[in-house]
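User: Hey, my collaborator sent me this sequence without any context and asked if I could get a structure. I don't really work with proteins. Can you help?
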Amino acid sequence: MYSVEDQKLAEQLLSHSVELKPGENILLQLIGLNGVGLIRALTRRVREIGAHPFVQIEDAETNRILLENGDEKFWINQAETDQLPLMKQMDAFIGIRAAENIYENSEVPKEANRAYSQKFLNPVHFEERVNNTRWAVLRYPSAAFAMNAKMPTEKFREFYYAACLFDYNKLEEAMKPLEELLRKTDLVQLKGEGTDISFSVKKQNWIPCFGKRNIPDGELFTSPILDSVNGHITYAPSVYQGKPFEFVKLEVEHGVVTNFDSSNNSALEEILDTDEGARRFGEFSFGLNPIISEPMYDILFDEKIYGSNHLTLGNDYEIAPNGNESNIHWDLVCIGADVYLDGELVRKGRKFVKDELKGLNPDSLV
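Assistant: No problem. I've predicted the 3D structure and written it out in structure-token form, which is a compact way to encode the shape of the chain:
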């Protein structure tokens, strides 16, 4: 019916991540049929808790057909008739992304993606779900997922559950000195191969993440002061809107991307031209999960890589705002840059060197 690992993951998601209580409504969404075992484990456990599961199981290829053929009128109707009224009744949400082909939506036209983002994704998820439910989102392991990670299937499954079932309470404690230091920080500088960029985070809010929203988790994020970002940055491989990028390089002046290079410049230009906010940055974060060491073309894992940072193009989060608005939110990851806070070196490459932060290094957490 479902594995022991899925049973453990379901328990962690419901008790730690969304803290589900008796009598509450929770939407369980599965995209891709591969993760049905976890949905079964979640559904059983929700009923044992005494809460009410609302289950959506969606086929990724059918979703692609909807994306390719949807327009603004279609997505407004989908949101207002079905998904938005339902989401407003939810206390919690767990979304499982189990599609086996990460490039499924790679040929969806730009205008179709924009219509979906503006008229469905933003109102239903970014505005309602993110702000008004206790939510968690995760991927589910598969042979295709293992292939992107360049691992044997069974080894990847072991890695997946180790990263997802990590002791987040221990990580929460280890983050506290870094959060305290960052709340006092004005200037952040990243310096590494292909990267020399700086920005202000003065008086910005910092959010520690330890298994409450994304699984696997392990990050500490804020947003940069909007017009303070200057320099250039090189990112690791990424997939966005189904389009693969082996690398992305950006040049930035006063918070705006002024020049760029990548392995897919036509697709990158389309993304940057989505709207005015797409060339600005809505998030900055430290990746802190000690189990995750290399990129695997999946942002829910890649943004948590230890010794990494992501400086995100697009929309900010309401919980840590900087005023940027966009229909995109692209978590691009920079791995192994030296980090300076107000001129002091605190991380050399991927290891923290400041004494009170050494508890975040992998050998202290695992």
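In plain terms: The CA atoms of residues 47 and 233 lie 48 Å apart. You can pass these tokens on to your collaborator as they are.
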